[in-house]
Structures are given as C-alpha cells and as structure tokens.
Amino acid sequence: MSGNKTSNLNMHHWTGADPVLRTEFNENFEKLDAFAGQLQTEDPTPVRLSYGMQVVNAKQTSMLENVSIKGRTLVNLLGREGNCEDSTKFKSGNGAVLTTDTTHYVYGTRSLKVEIPTGSTAGNAFLDISGLIKNDQKKKYILIGEVKNGNSTNGVLKFSEETGYGVLTSFITDATRFNLTYAKIDASQIKASNSLKFMFFIVLGSGGQYAYVDGIRLYEISQAEYDALDGMTPEQIADKWPYVDDMKSIYSPYVIKYGENLLPPFSEYKLTNGNGVAIDPYALTITSTGTDVLQNECYVDIPAKPNTTYTLSCPAMTGKAKFISLDSNKTMIASGTYSTSQRQSKTTEVNCEYLRLLFSADTAGTFTFTNPMLNLGPDALPFKPRNDDYLFFPNAQLASNVEGTVYDTLFQRDGKYWKQARFRTMDLDGSLEWRLYQESSGYRIVEISITDGLSDTEKVIKYDGKTIPHVFPLIGADQSILSRSSCVLRLTVSNSDSGWGDLYKDLSTNEIKAYFLGYKMYVAGGSGDIHYNGSGIKAWAYRRPDGGWQDVGTRIPTTPAPGFTPYKLQYQLAAPAVEEITVEGGITFHEGPDQIEVGSGIVVREKTIPFYDEFVNEYYINAHSVKAPLRAGVRKYITVYRGNLADKKWSFGTGGPESRNYAVIPASNYDPTATYTVTYLALDQYAITCNLESIQGEYASNLKKVVDQLAAHQADVEARASIAENLARQVHISQKGVVNPWGDNNSAISKAINGYQKLPSGLILQWGTAVITNTGTVTFPIAFPNYAMHVYGQVETSVASQTVGIGSYSNTQFMAWAVTGPKQTIHWFAIGY
Q: Are residues 740 and 643 in the same domain?
C-alpha cells in the first residue's frame, strides 16, 4: 500500500506489481469512494403534497422535515345561498316551481330542485348578484355548481348581465349523480354600464320535468388561475375551489401517512352476523353454516387513490376474498368476484375513493384468514402490521388576501412549528365596544377600534353570509372601511336591519351591541318590521327560522340570539407577527410508495362524556344532538382516546333518527373513571375551512443526512421534554380576585368572585361566589374550553341553604341555570379534566 488515498473514505490505493490488476483494483476503489461521497453530499429531496389522496415514492426511509403551508382564503360572493338549503332565497323564473330535496344533495342536508312549469320548455331559479361583480374590467371570476339531472333534458348554470346573453357552464344530462359544472368569466366582457347581474340555474325539457343543483359558488380568481382553467380536470377544479359558506380560510390542516400495510387489525372490520371473530389483531375465523356468502362477509373500507394498483396477499387464507370499489359517498362503482387466490391485485377506477375488502366463505365449516397484507403496487410484500403516521395542526388558521399574494405562513424551525401571521380574523359581535359614529338617512355608521390593521384590507361578512364591500367614502347601507390612521373599522347598518328609525336620536352603545348579538329594535306591541322612531316603548326581537319575529321584551338583550351567526371580519395586519402553534405527531416515509392524505378541518382530542344506553348496555358518542355530541359533527373518525392511549375497542356506525356518525362501545369495555377524547374530521367542511393547495417539505435522500436528521430531532425532543417537565412542577394560577367573570351577560348578578387553577396533573379546579339580586339566568363562565367540567353548588337564601348538583358539561359553554329572587348567594365549585 502507498500513501495515496481516496478522497471520501480515505482508502489506500493498491500498488501491486501487475499494472493491469492494479489499475482495475484502484478504479473499483474510486467508484466505490465516489458512490460513498454521493451518499454524504446529496441534497434533501423536496416533496410537494397536494390536497387529497396521493402517492409519494420515497427513495429511502426518512422523516418529513421543513414543512411549510401557505395560507388561503376563499370568499364565495354568493354568501351561503349557494348551499341550496332554503328555496326561498332564490327567485323563480318563468314560473318554475322551486323546492328543496332532502334525498339528493352534496352539501348540508338538501339541494335545490327546479321543476319546469306546465306548458313550458324551461324553468329557472336565479339570484340577484348586483354589486358583487366589480365594474373592474381586469377582474376574473369562476362560477361553479354541482348539478344532477332528474328527468329533464338537462340543467345548466348561467351568469348574465342586465341585457346580455351571459356565460353558460356545460350542460348536465347525467341523472345518476351530481356532476361539477363551471364557467370562467372575464369582467371585460361585462358592460360596466349594466348595474344588474344575475346567476341562473336553468332546467330545459317539458312541463313537470326537473333537475337538482347544490354547492353553487362564485369566486374572484387571478389571471394565472383563469388561464390555467382550460387544462384542469373537474376533479382538480373541485379541489382547488371547493364550495364554502361565505368566507373561509384554511383551518386545522393535517397530513396522514398510511402504513405500508393498508389493512387495520380485524377488530376494526365490520364482522357480519357474529359469524366472524377476531381471535388476534391479524387473525380472523369465520364459522359458516351454509352456502350464503353474504351471511359470512367481514369487511373494511380503505381510503384509496383513483387509477392506482393495490395488491392483497394472505398466504394463510382458507376462505375467499374480493374487492369492491366505492365513490366518495361509498356508493358501489364496481364489484369483483370472490376468489380463493392468496394474491389478488386491483386497479382503482377514475372516481374510486374507497376500496372495500371483503373476506367470506360459501360452504359450511371454519375458515381462517391470518396476516393479510394490502399494499400499493402490483407486487405482494411481506406482512407487517399497519403503522400510520400523522401530522395535525389543531385550530391553526391560515388566511390570505383574495388575490393570494399576501398570506399567513406555517413553517418549521428548530423542531417546532410557527405561524407568521399576516391576517387576523374575528367575530364582530356584541362583546365588542361599538359606538355610534354618524347618523344618515336610512342607515347609521357605527365603529370599533382596530389598532393593528392595514387600511382598506378588511373583508366583512354580514350575519346572513353576504359580503359587505369596502367603500370610501361610506355612502349607503352595508358598506365598510378600515382606517389605519384613525385606528377604526366603520360599518353602515340599515334601518331595515336594525330597527333604528331616522328620528331616533339617542342610540346607545348597548343598543348597538344588541344589534350585533342578533336583535332588532321595534315598538313594543307592534310589528317587528316597524322601526323605532323615539316614541312608544322600545322592545327587541330576533328573527325565527320561519321568517317571523320572536319578541324578547323591553330589556336590552345581552346574550346572542338563538341560531344567530355574527358578522365576521378579516383584515391584514400592519406588521407581521410570529407565534408558536400547537402540533401533534410527525411523518416518516417508508422506502417505496407511500399513500398520503392531506386535508383540513380536523378536530384533535375533543373531550366528551359518552352517554349510556341502558336498553342495549352500550356507551355512545355523537349518536344524538343532545347526548354526547361532538361540536363539529363527524365526517370520519380518526381515533377515540381513553386517557392518552388510543382505544381500539370502539366501533363506528351511521344511523338513528338524525343519521349521525356515532362511536359505540359495549359497557364491559368502558371505563367510567377515564377521560375520553376524540380526533375526527369535521362533517361540514364548507362551514369551517377551505382546502389548502399544497404542503411543501423535504426528506433526507442519503444515509448520512438521515442520521443527522435523527440526531437533531432527538435534541429537539429532549429540549421540549425538559421544558414540559419544569412546567409540570409548577401550579399555574391563571386568574384569581374580585372580578365579574360573567360580564354583563348575567343581569341577575350584582357582584361575583371567581378563580381557577390548573394542577400539575392536568386537573382543573374552578370556583366562584355570585350574589343574585334579581330573577334571571346564570351562565357559568369558561376557564378552559372543552374540558369536561363537573359543577356543584350551594344556594343560600334568607330562608335556608340548599346544596345542588348543577351538572356536567363537555362543550364550550356551561349550561344556563335559572335562579329566582329575592336575594340569594350561589357558592359553586367545578372539577374538570
């Protein structure tokens, strides 16, 4: 050997006598050394995860790092009308009959049904959208809806100006399902002089024929998006511009990486008729007494990607298996045939979103299925248990301006996740310090202080979902302006909405607050549609679902009206702010194809108190709207936790009078002393979030970087753990003193003392004393929202003392408790977990 060495591994060159052997030997050393150098210096592999289901082919096992997400906000210029839950929001054209249908729908609980009148060949429903389309000839828009034909010739959406022929979407003839239809709109084609503009749903055919529409949305889009539309598929358009009610930003994004084995343990299967028994996590026996294969079916539904090959292998299978393809509503697309083959492959259809895998038997006897494996690709892989990874960002909200040029950013740094906030979103409700700015004919200008906003960047959504435009100067009802120099947001409120007549000159702050809580002022004893002009007795009412008015008396209301949705404001911050955000989990890619799901609207570890059904001896979650409901409704369960551990003994179903997705467990497997929480995807995504477009990240593409990554991650984990341990040794007193925690919402209370404490164990203690001087209602305050609180109290009156159990609550508000005068004192104490 000589002193000559390779550059990367410092291997000695061979200096043997034979020049040919010496050359070949050293060339091989150099190749080996070059390969090693490549492993040490190769850059990380970038990865872009788009919305929905996808497959990522990883070069090697490695963690997903340097994650970042750009914020996004969608503003549906149709407000909430396009949800088609209320046919009275639309006007009938050409005598068409407008109703809602609860059998055929995509969003909410119904769609709009339009029936052609007798003797006609067309009928339509339309919305007046005058004022929503700006007379800016550079603007671009997209009109989208989902149409299902009934028995008509076809149905179509149309955007039309006052005198023009308008822009049509594609005609839909399919009567089997809802189909997305869209049209792009160039504002330069719209005459600026025409002030009236309409959105139509037109049905063509003959009298009595009909079609359905749902999820109508109208969005302003950029020039680049407008240009790209012609190259996009309907599925891509649906993902990029989903239906949302009024204005929604990205809320609670998530990433789920499914295990290399896509099949869960048999305990998570639907075991039909009790013939199937899971004797081990991955061992199933089916005891068959006959030839009916349907009586023995045991199955599970697996999220799937369209146009993708999946392979099932189960060497220890003595029965039969098959695949069924399902769409997004779990309606069957195609069914395979049962086979005894221990290896089967299936390529999914273009609209497949789930694969149902069924095991069964069609002869008498006992049949076994052990260690089944379902993996991506045409080749069967050796069995391994399913091991999913996830990355959740609970309650993270990421917004942008309409153009998408300014946005919040979620990013990773030093093992933690942060948000650079460029926007703020808030409810404009009666808790804010409203004040009168100016009186005008037919409307009032009211204002609140906004000290951190950038001028003219406000987006305001009215209580009914309509967008309130930015206008300067304010010259009419339903207009807004945000001023940086004056540090105020000003809104104009019409007399017809508020009930404040032009002649009423003593409008108070509390009366303005009452409007933003959902109430209208009027003359007591009169009609709710008559304005109060300074004479008579002032009274307040709120609008009922049937359109009538519900009187609440002559005292100024201080709590939100039932069912009222407050105004909402989003504005750009004058200066960005960086804040740490909560995260749960982490993603590690396995080598080869990884099935990844990306979405938003996840609810993480919501606390719940399951209710007991004595008739079936089972405990339920979310089976009833007033018994252990989950606050956002459930589209899909992720995990039920008992304490901090996943409880796999719960099963899931859909049913009951409200057709809710519920979780159920036998009483024998329920622990009444445990705390139960649930992670799930919210049911009505359109009501809380819009779709994110992508998540950027990277993973180490060589062995050295994987090791470096793991070492850095370990250091970050140890740092966070030490901080948590130090905090756990402390008892945090969050609030204590003589305050009124109930604020002005409890007119019966004259004074109150309140305090709360969080113990190292995580237990919450909360206490209070309230002096009651009037008959009224006490609404208990919130120390830690979503903790399961058990509240006890003692009432002292001038006659006697009485101990009462106030109740147990797991939602975000304590239940109201009615009290009666004369003077009495309530001492109360709560324990939460």
A: no
